[in-house]
Amino acid sequence: MSEQSDYRAFDRPELLQFVFFPRKDFSSPLPGSYDYRIPVDSGVSISCRFYVHGYKSPSILYFHGNGEVVSDYDFVAQLYRGRSINIFVADYRGYGASDGSPTFSSMVADSHPIFQGFLKVLEEDAYSDRVFLMGRSLGSVSAIELAAAYPDKVAGLIIESGFASTVRLMTRLGFPQDLLGIKDFGFPNRSKIEKVALPTLLIHGEYDSLIPLTEAQDLYEHSPAGNKRLVVIPQADHNDIMIRDMDLYFGAIQEFVFG
User: What pTM does this model have?
Assistant: First the structure.
């Protein structure tokens, strides 16, 4: 079964309810942040928000976790700005102010025009071309997809609370493995990260109850990057990872981006 067919296999209605929890939001950007709508398909645009520190600062294209929307990062972005980093947060179909409804295959396909739109914003407004990809949880799929596809345009890859195997994740969430129809336990992140030699930073909670630390360890072991690091946040679960040890979390990102 091809990778494209595998993506479509996850688009069955009975699976999508396990994968996506879209939430609408039409809030306005705060001062110092700017909203963009990036076309990804006929009649479909994705809402993104760019939180700017400065034109010479490095920029992160960030794919958020499930159930989140870009405005959830209005506060978090200030912590990136405090580390002299721009962050460009992208939604998915059906999330935030985006059009359409989310599927696994559209999420992966949409990441490519989102990346091109992000680079266009940087170029047109004369921002630094030093860019990084970052994905949290579900967003790890988009980030790793792009890192494998555009290694010459990216300075590094950051994965927070990511998973190696969608099959393991789905079965952990309660969907019977025999109904998935997919036998590749490396699909898609572990298989993709094996092609990514970019500098790679993995951040994971020690006691993540949704995506266990073993998933990050699996990604780390299969990464061919010569420059790679796994940072474990002590005592952290899936959704409190940033606040458990903010100095460790953001310090690792700052060191990675500026190192």
Answer: 0.95
